[in-house]
Amino acid sequence: MSVSDQDLILLEKKLLERQEKLEREKEDLEKEKQKLESKKEEYTEKLQKASGLTKEEAKQKLLEETEQKEAQVIAKIIKESEEEARRTADKKAREILIDSMRHGALNYIAEYTVSTVKIPDEEMKGRIIGKEGRNIRAFEQATGVDVDLDEEGIVRLSSFDQVRREVARRALEKLLKDTRVQPFRIEEIVEQTKKEVEKIMLEEGEWLAQEAGVFNVPVELLSILGRFKFRTSYGQNLIVHTLEETKIGVHIAQEVGADANIVRLGCLFHDIGKVVEGDGSHVKLGVELLKRFNIPEAIVNCVAEHHEDKPFSSIESVIVSIADAISGARPGARYEDYEEYAKRLKEMETLAKKYEGVEDAYAFEAGRELRVIINPGKLDDAQTTIVANKIREEVSSKLAVPGEVKVTAIREFRAVSTRSA
């Protein structure tokens, strides 16, 4: 056997001895571990007996104490954050609104439209009137407007329907250039003009939707939106107002993290009821129209709530209402003769007071609501309802009040008894 083989045998022997030693140490460690576990359980039992708590109860108590301690820290942070928010909220809100108005500013101002047409001379005026007034009667019947020729050199066209009035204005201008002014020709020109105006309304509706960043709108709705071109509210053109409001609303939505698309469509459609025929307020008519076209509920709610006729259901509805108020209330946006406005409210109250059994009347909400105080000794409940309906009908027919008028009749009976000592 060589020396190298002896070395290998010795090395193997040493390795075996070391392995045996490690095994013994491992066994000793396991025994020590078991002893420690036993001691741990023993001490745990002693602690439970001393504190009167189980292991789970002690853990829960420790967690509760930690939560109480951390709650004070959290409450302090929340309080500091609230104080900081209060200090900066007004400033931040002003910054958002000012920036939104800057983004909503347009390159042109609201239009003040008047439906008048100039007549070159008395001869042309006579031709427009026709023999025994047949031409003017045919014109009024074809267009659905009232024609006033009393003022020299001017024809005034009156109608609550702005589209009809625009058709009449354009048709009259064509007739002034035409030598054949007769009933048949009048009807022919009016029909041609109606088609022209319908085409213009569709083009205007498409333009408005594109400028507002809205696409894939049904053609019927685009045509209705196009009527905004011929509709004003207190001197503010609806196309200008709608586009301005949309830009303001979208910017506010982006600043506060709301859904800008819902706000965009809510602003675009919010006043669509003003150009729809039917009974009720423009809010009610607009909601009914949008539901017929299956417009999403979130957008319909923006329209239904923009005058707070219903409680706000979302932050998007609030933004649409705010944007509408900003656009309508900014200096120069709308025009109203304040003397005429005050006169109209006074006339509403006077009209209501003339009815028997009415003690007093008050106009509210810019003339959209009339509250009537009834003498309970003169009218019963049924008579009160009848009087309220009569007042509403007379106010709607005799006074130029924008939108629907709500009449609230209040009949209250009080019995007071006193006895002196």
Structure characterization notes:
The chain is mainly alpha-helical and about 425 residues long. The chain folds into 4 domains: about 1-40; about 115-205, 2-Layer Sandwich (Ribosomal Protein S8, Chain: A, domain 1); about 240-330, Hypothetical protein af1432; about 340-410, Alpha-Beta Plaits. About 65% of the residues lie in helices and about 10% in strands. The chain has 14 helices and 8 strands. It has helices spanning about 5-50, 55-105, 120-130, 135-145, 160-175, 185-210, 220-225, 240-255, 260-270, 280-290, 295-305, 315-330, 340-355, 380-400, and strands spanning about 115-120, 145-150, 155-160, 230-235, 235, 360-365, 370-375, 405-410. It has a 3-stranded antiparallel beta sheet, with helices on one face. The protein has a 3-stranded mixed beta sheet with strand order 6-7-8, covered by helices on one side. A hairpin with a 4-residue loop joins strand 6 and strand 7. Helix 8 (about 240-255) runs antiparallel to helix 9 and helix 9 (about 260-270) packs across helix 12 (about 315-330).
Low-confidence stretches: 107-114
Number of domains: 4
Order of strands, widest sheet:
1-3-2
Give the helices and strands as they follow along the chain: HHEHHEEHHHEEHHHHHHEEHE
Report the strand count: 8
Taking the alpha carbons of the first and last residues, their distance comes to: 140 Å
**H/I helix tally:** 14
Helix/strand layout:
Blueprint: H1 3-51, H2 55-104, E1 116-118, H3 122-129, H4 134-143, E2 146-148, E3 154-158, H5 162-177, H6 183-212, H7 219-226, E4 232-233, E5 236-237, H8 238-256, H9 260-269, H10 282-292, H11 297-305, H12 315-329, H13 338-353, E6 358-364, E7 369-374, H14 381-398, E8 406-411
Parallel strand pairs: 7-8
Antiparallel strand pairs: 1-3, 2-3, 4-5, 6-7
Helix pairs in contact: 2-8, 4-6, 5-6, 6-7, 8-9, 8-12, 9-11, 9-12, 10-11, 11-12
